[in-house]
Structure to design on (614 residues):
């Protein structure tokens, strides 16, 4: 086991309260005063979760967006957030970060109500944390663990754009701009999550890649999942970047930062917005991959794992 | 203005929601479902908020304690917390940190329900964040800003012990042990805060030093405050460390990490636990210091300001 796996196992032994959901969901769900509070907190680190050369406005945006996406995955309405900010020593950079953060908070109606500002030792990397609080849907807060054998696996939007965007950013390229934008300005699907929550058996956001995240949903639900690579929704921008082959589809299915919603529903469930059916759940366990009618071997890496 | 002051001013411009309390209180207060949620989040950084050589169990304890102390200052009952942990690369250190954290969480009944674990680039300092959620008292959540001219200023326990403890820790000394313990294992006054909350005009915890924190309470309340150094409650351990003179009392009044409660009450208010009257509020603004009947000049540094 890696250091991180060992540590998270130790955390799980600590986090035995129901609200923690075994630390296996996108967010914690705390019942208070008849309401279900949805709580999530993500930390992003320079050189691990973003490129130090990314524009600071985009990093501020992203810090809000990754947390909003966790609320979206639980169908929660954003209520408020707290931010923990490590000053970088560059006042202009810090100022620009706040501009991007404010754009996202304003757009999604999530007021900043507290947090902490700290100085860091010389040379330390940027480390930024945001804790988001939302109100869960009255119908109950969907988990990752509710998928049943026979359910279909669906995804919103298109996948793989941000993964290509990250490669473009690393190489200093700017085209296709939609992919760069998908990486730098992810759009959390807050309204979509609220619309879907009453209808799904299980829901989560795609943050590390379709394959690894679908495998997590299947494992949490104690079922198997089969994904058809040829059904993955790919954008024109992504398709225009290379040949539409197995390699491109595998890259799209294992790239991080999509922030689409992944959901399990019984077949034939009418949904209020367009989604793409990319697979199905079955008795058993594990992930299998199809391309057309051909079973293809799993790639060595199922998703984007940070650091 | 310092970089931090400029940044916090920019944050205040962002945090206009009532729940933020102008970012001038120990915690945010969010009304939901008829309950007042009290939310606070503190980050601690190696070399800034603790010594890298401090025992990891004590750092884990402290991360919980500093946040619990903010809840205590608002008379809140701890409900849950989320932790954001930057892996240090030393598995044994991380494991010991969790032991100390667990001790505090168990003792104060604050379950861990979520958060994030991140890897850091090589050589980065330890950075740990905890976000605590509490339930505010039904009588209303006390603020820092309710003190009135004529109120008296009181403090729980003794002050200055942790300040001396920090000096001892820096020098590798172990005596007096009570002071070292006050620095390493601060005891947040959660029950005391709940008992005091219905009776106070204003309350906060002493995290940066009695003088600076009392000055903050006075400024938030738009009144002046006068503190009598000769009335400061000092422990036998602190008194035995040097001569009981103005220098020792000034050091105790400007040292951080006490985590006592500072409160404003009308004179003659019966209180459910022992406190020491150390000053009074008056019309006007600013802080003045007395030693006996003598007005003494303010020290150049009113408290312990990190980094």
């Amino acid at each position: 086991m890696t250091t991180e796996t060992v540590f998270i196992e130790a955390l799980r032994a600590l986090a035995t309260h129901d609200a923690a959901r075994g630390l296996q969901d996108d967010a914690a769900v705390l019942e208070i005063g008849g309401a279900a509070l949805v709580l999530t907190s993500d930390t992003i680190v320079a050189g691990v979760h973003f490129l130090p050369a990314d524009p600071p406005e985009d990093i501020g945006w992203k810090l809000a967006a990754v947390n909003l996406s966790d609320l979206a995955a639980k169908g929660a309405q954003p209520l408020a957030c707290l931010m923990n900010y490590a000053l970088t020593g560059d006042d202009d950079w810090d100022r620009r970060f706040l501009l991007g953060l404010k754009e996202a908070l304003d757009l999604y109606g999530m007021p900043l109500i507290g947090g902490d500002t700290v100085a860091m030792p010389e040379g330390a990397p940027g480390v930024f944390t945001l804790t988001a609080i939302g109100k869960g849907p009255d119908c109950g807060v969907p988990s990752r663990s509710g998928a049943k054998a026979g359910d279909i696996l669906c995804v919103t939007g298109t996948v793989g754009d941000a993964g290509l965007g990250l490669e473009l950013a690393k190489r200093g390229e700017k085209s296709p701009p939609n992919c760069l934008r998908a990486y730098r300005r992810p759009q959390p699907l807050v309204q979509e999550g609220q619309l879907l929550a009453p209808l799904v058996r299980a829901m989560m956001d795609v943050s590390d890649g379709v394959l690894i995240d679908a495998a997590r949903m299947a494992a949490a639900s104690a079922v198997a999942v089969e994904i058809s690579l040829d059904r993955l929704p790919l954008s024109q921008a992504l398709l225009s970047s290379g040949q539409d082959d197995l390699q491109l589809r595998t890259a799209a299915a294992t790239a991080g930062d999509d922030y689409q919603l992944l959901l399990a529903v019984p077949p034939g469930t009418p949904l209020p917005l367009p989604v793409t059916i990319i697979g199905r759940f079955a008795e058993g366990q594990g992930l299998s991959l199809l391309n057309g009618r051909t079973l293809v071997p799993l790639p060595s890496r199922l998703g984007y794992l940070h650091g």
In short: Chain A has two domains: 3-135, 152-296. Residues 32 and 300 of chain A are 43 Å apart (CA to CA). The two ends of chain A are 15 Å apart (CA to CA). DSSP finds nine helices and twelve strands in chain A.
